[in-house]
Amino acid sequence: MSFRSRQSSGFTLVEILVAVAVFALLGVASSVTVQQMIRTKEQSSEKLQQLQELQRAMLIMEQDIRGMVKRTNPTGRLLFVDVEQIAFIRNGWLNPGAALPRSQLQPVIYTLRDNQLIRQHFYFPDVSLSAEPQERILLDKVSEMRMRFYLKPEPNADAQVRQRGGAWVESWNFPNALPHAIELTLETETWGRIERVFLINGGELKEKSILVGPDPNNPGTNQGGAAPPQTEGGS
């Protein structure tokens, strides 16, 4: 074999450099693609977590507002509304067999503080205004909270409620009444404007009690034993 044929069987320096450059470009492209996939996954996980937090917050608020009862809270009102704050008492706080040292009625406060939607609650409905509540942050990066209230005219409502019934009102000035629905508007950095309407289940307080007195369907008989009705929380 001649020297010329042996020389032509190898790779030139230019060919090697071209091959190295091609592999380097492929490596860079692969690295960029992998990094983009990682960032996309992280962003998706973050958005999914934020969505779950939003859904959880809305579910908690719906359960609380639907369970609102006609029971005065520590402010002396059935429903206390202030700037970016709402307070009421809800029923249905499960306590099977009264095993836990608390009532089934739960005073609840929703307030906006430091761009955070915070839920506060007490263990008993009759507490002093100086008592420290339990707090839980429901949503972050909330810049504003607004509420409207729907009044439904009823025959047994007071004159003020009947006069303004059947319409949405911006403020709640009825200490002895509950609305039939609450419209909540949140201005958030993550989701923009969120609007939800929560219905209230009649606002009737169902407590464990024994009714005393004549049966309206059968005068002269009693509906229960001799014990008077008892209100949880000492009311």
TrEMBL record:
Keyword Coiled coil recorded: yes
High-level lineage: Bacteria, Pseudomonadati, Pseudomonadota, Gammaproteobacteria, Alteromonadales
Gene3D superfamilies assigned to the protein according to its UniProt record, in alphabetical order: GSPII I/J protein-like, gspk-gspi-gspj complex like domains
PROSITE patterns reported for this sequence: PROKAR_NTER_METHYL
Keyword set, alphabetical order: Cell inner membrane, Cell membrane, Coiled coil, Membrane, Methylation, Transmembrane, Transmembrane helix
Naturally occurring in which organism (per UniProt): Pseudidiomarina taiwanensis
The name this protein goes by in its record: Type II secretion system protein J
A GO biological-process term: protein secretion by the type II secretion system
PANTHER family reported for this sequence: TYPE II SECRETION SYSTEM PROTEIN J, TYPE II SECRETION SYSTEM PROTEIN J-RELATED
InterPro entries assigned to the protein according to its UniProt record, in alphabetical order: N_methyl_site (IPR012902), Pilin-like (IPR045584), T2SS_protein-GspJ (IPR010055), T2SS_protein_J (IPR051621)
Membrane topology according to the record: Single-pass membrane protein
